Amino acid sequence: MHHEQFEIWVLRGKRWEMSSSYMDFEIASAIANTYKERMRLIHAVYENGARVQEDILAEMGTTREKP
């Protein structure tokens, strides 16, 4: 079974965590633009429940290390 979705991942400390996922790119993109912390918008492809491909479409937010 083939499944594609757009995921928003947020950097929490030193670890990336998935915040949400959407079937529609326009919705995912609009919501991603509301985040203030460092985040990635990813297009993910699943086959039979296993992630087989991912493409980082955008990475936004704070990129500097805080003292």
Account of the 3D structure:
This protein is mainly β. The chain has one domain (2-58). The protein has one helix at residues 25-32; strands at residues 2-12, 15-22, 39-47, 50-60. A four-stranded antiparallel beta sheet has the order 2-1-3-4, covered by helices on one side. The model has no long low-confidence stretch (mean pLDDT 92).
* N→C terminal distance: 46 Å
Which of globular, elongated, flat, extended, rod-shaped describes the shape?
Answer: globular
**Level of helix content?**
10-25%
The largest sheet has its strands arranged as 2-1-3-4
Total E-strand runs: 4
Uncertain residue ranges: none
Class of secondary structure makeup: mainly beta
Give me the number of helical elements: 1
Radius of gyration over alpha carbons? 13 Å
Q: Taking all residues together, what is the mean pLDDT?
A: 92
Element order: H for helix, E for strand: EEHEE
Number of separate domains: 1
Range of strand content: over 45%
- Main beta sheet: 4 strands, antiparallel
What are the salient characteristics of this protein?
1 helix, four-stranded antiparallel sheet, 67 residues, mainly beta, globular, single chain
